[in-house]
Amino acid sequence: MSTVAMNSTTIDNVINTIVISEQPLLTAKLSEALATTEYKIIFEGSTLQQLLSLKWSEEPQLIIAIMDTSDNQVLSKFKVINEQFPMPIVIFTHDDRDDAIEQAIEAGVSAYIVDGFREDRVQPILRTALLRFKQYQSMKTQLKDLKTSLADRKVIDRAKGLIMEQRQCTEDEAYRLLRSSAMNQNMRLAQLAQNILATANLLEPKKTL
């Protein structure tokens, strides 16, 4: 049965935590270990399916799962959850199969702990998972920015080539003209370059067979 629980202690920088567990005894130990910490348990349940249908009054920031085995179906649900609501996921399990560990990593699990549930280890594991998740998200953002930058550069280079051809000017002159126009129109350089290419494509005579 699903329950909503809250820590009684008021702590700054609260981390809203979801607990999914097939083992009531370990769930109770986990709740006790987190009772006076920043980890506020906002939901306890026994299956991941319960999470997919819930509407949250408080945004979850961490998932802790305690399970005997990590089968493909369970890990695929973790992947769906992580794609829709990216957050650190920590799994405590007895399943040490290589394919389970590999699938957990692919699902975005931040920490996969085999036979390692002890109350005194929980907080260091959670802190490590939170930091690892933060670093991973930062890397994703940097990679996305890099891809955007490379795509923008290609568009700008094409626009410069078009200006050089039409104005019979140098590359530096074409770039200065492009940059000046972007500033005057309060527009990103790449967006102006894209507009120039789109206009040129629109005005280009259609080829006849």
UniProtKB/TrEMBL annotation:
Any Pfam family hit: ANTAR
Residue span, ANTAR domain: 136-197
InterPro entries for this protein: ANTAR (IPR005561), CheY-like_superfamily (IPR011006), Sig_transdc_resp-reg_antiterm (IPR008327), Sig_transdc_resp-reg_receiver (IPR001789), WH-like_DNA-bd_sf (IPR036388)
Domain Response regulatory: 16-130
GO terms, biological process: phosphorelay signal transduction system
A GO molecular-function descriptor: RNA binding
Record's protein name: Response regulator NasT
Protein species of origin: Methylophaga thiooxydans
